[in-house]
Automatic annotation (TrEMBL):
SUPFAM superfamilies: alpha/beta-Hydrolases. This is Cutinase. Pfam families: Cutinase. GO terms for molecular function: carboxylic ester hydrolase activity. InterPro entries: AB_hydrolase_fold, Cutinase/axe. It comes from the Bacteria. The chain crosses the membrane at residues 15-38. The keyword S-adenosyl-L-methionine does not apply. It comes from Nocardia tenerifensis. Keywords: Disulfide bond, Hydrolase, Membrane, Serine esterase, Transmembrane, Transmembrane helix. PANTHER family: CUTINASE 4 (PTHR33630:SF9), CUTINASE RV1984C-RELATED-RELATED (PTHR33630).
Amino acid sequence: MNARRGATARRSRPVGCLLLIGIPVLIIIVALLLWYLLAGFLRQPKPGPKPPKEPTSQSASCPDVQMISVPGTWESNSNDDPHNPTANPVSLMLNVSGPVGQQFPKERLDVYTVPYVAQFSNPIAIPPDGQASYNNSRSEGTQRMVDAMRARFAECPLTTYVIAGFSQGAVIAGDVASEIGQGKGPVPANKVLGVTLISDGRRTGDTGPGQPVQVGAVPPGVGAEVALKGLNVPGITMTGPRPGGFGELAERTFTICAQGDLICDAPREALSPWNIMGSVGALVRAAGNPVHALYNGFVVDDNGTTSTQWTAEWARKLIESAPHPPHS
């Protein structure tokens, strides 16, 4: 009788040990799953409907040119006024959109500043920093930009577009421009007059088919998303270079990057998806590094023209020479 009880006790111990080990493991797995789900996956807008045949005129309320300005991280919020942005009075893109908008009447130009959360949560911060994840922020900004362009194109099919973005906004603007250039965007490629990206995190530094024109001195590195391609931690998906580049818009797309700015000039060997903690920490710090924050004074030519001055003048010239569509 005692022997049977002893055998039963011995058999029950492994089961009890498995339960003691299995329950904490299950809790950890559930916690990690919730972490990923709450941080968000990167979402890309679905292709819109094919446009109808182009009319010969458009409504008198339509501007000839629509400028799309996409601010960088911490330079906007979801509730900002796209026609009078005040979320961040020192937003870099205001140094472009402000001067340009003042030079043209509303019939000629409308400036739309994409309002989005514009945050970059540090996924390894303890305690959590309370910000939106990069995936959620970037997804919202992309969808807001696409929705605005689709709505404008549906209402004003003859309006043309000038696109510019900085930092996270450059990634968003570049992604949408890439889709447009490959015939999958919210407006036809022939309606986009030009694109300028300042500190683009998906910059390849390459030349050739599909690649943008590089303005100023060309730094040796690549965008952080290219250097960290394959890194996927909760809330941060590094998507690498844009497949196909900018397609039909390549020769009309310009990129500006200051040497030492890790967002667009990251050395491949300095950031690695295999060193997740160090790489994520470097990426989060890069968004606030001094080089990245000084593009308003970053000189891009021998005349002392800064990146924002160059972009504003580039936009002005495009708008001045843009078509004047008939109105009805």
